[in-house]
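Suppose you are handed only two things: the residues of a chain and a line of SMILES describing molybdenum atom. What would the bound structure be? This form records exactly that question and the answer produced for it, so the two can be stored side by side and reused later without any lookup.

QUESTION INPUTS
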Amino acid sequence: MSFIHLPKSWQLAESQITPEFAYWNRRKFMKAIVGMGMGASAVSVVGCQRANKMAPELQETLGQPLNNVTRHPGFRDAGRAITEQQYASTYNNFYEFGGTKNIWADAQNLPTDPWTLEVGGLVKNPKKYDLDDLTNRFPLEERVYRFRCVEAWAMVVPWLGFPMQALMADVEPTSDAKYVSFTSFYDPEITPGPAWGFAQNLPWPYVEALTIAEMANELAFFAVGIYGRTLPKQHGAPIRMVTPWKYGFKSGKSIVKIEFLQERPATYWNTLSPNEYGFEANVNPEVPHPRWSQMTEKIVGTNTNPFDWEKQPTVIYNGYGEYVAGLYA
Ligand SMILES: Nc1nc2c(c(=O)[nH]1)N[C@H]1C(S)=C(S)[C@@H](COP(=O)(O)O)O[C@H]1N2
Ligand SMILES: [Mo]
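ANSWER OUTPUT
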């Protein structure tokens, strides 16, 4: 199995790869908390990343600050600058709220409190987690990951959450469990879908799935926050999947149900268009989407005009081959 080995470039000093403003903000922030006598490990990389540059309507969508978050030492940077939140949180895919990138305001209709995440199927301990469990039951980490959409745009975001492994350890899948399905919130009154959806019979709810080995991989993550705070609704509050070596559509948002299964379940995009959206959906420059090449990607927010976003070469497994290539050998 050959893949481009990235770590060298990924181990640049943070000051070299983090945008100037975030670095400056962090130093100011660190000074402040050191002054308060707190340790340096329990801080967010970009918790206070120039919120003041965001429109007030956007600031209102941001969640609550999350405390007691440890920065995962292996995922402090992703070899590229962190995307500014004003771009990441206004350029989203969340088809329940429409078929365009500009759904962040409409997504505020999502009801997230109370919330129940039900975990069952082939497990020894079926569980129901409430909103409080999601941020308090499992130790929270911050991980800066690359994120690559199948549509050939990419960003880098600081997620807050916990490894999927932690939840697996809690529910204890049985040896029969081979696949895991993740179902997103759906209520036709609240999540109307894209306008063109009326003409089609879209396979709601949005369901994604992983193999049990993928879910157990060190990279597989549940995000309950981003940029230092709980997830804004447009990013899939209160809990969403993050699998950075796969195309973004594998990362289901606003998860209400997780089921451990023997057979591979049907999934949303794969059902709609199987030859465009494979089940595995690992990032791979050599496998073009039927309608476009995957050799390069546009980096979100690198210019105010999206047509001028910087282009970078796509990397196999999105640069995470050392963690996941073995899964597919
Ligand atoms: N429930 C649900 N989850 C979803 C989607 C969606 O439409 N509905 N879109 C997916 C796609 S295509 C991408 S690229 C990412 C986008 O995540 P972001 O908006 O937080 O960047 O969410 C994924 N998860
Ligand atoms: Mo996507």
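WHAT STANDS OUT: Residues 93, 149-151, 248-249 surround molybdenum atom (ligand 2) (CB under 6 Å). The longest strand covers residues 153-163.
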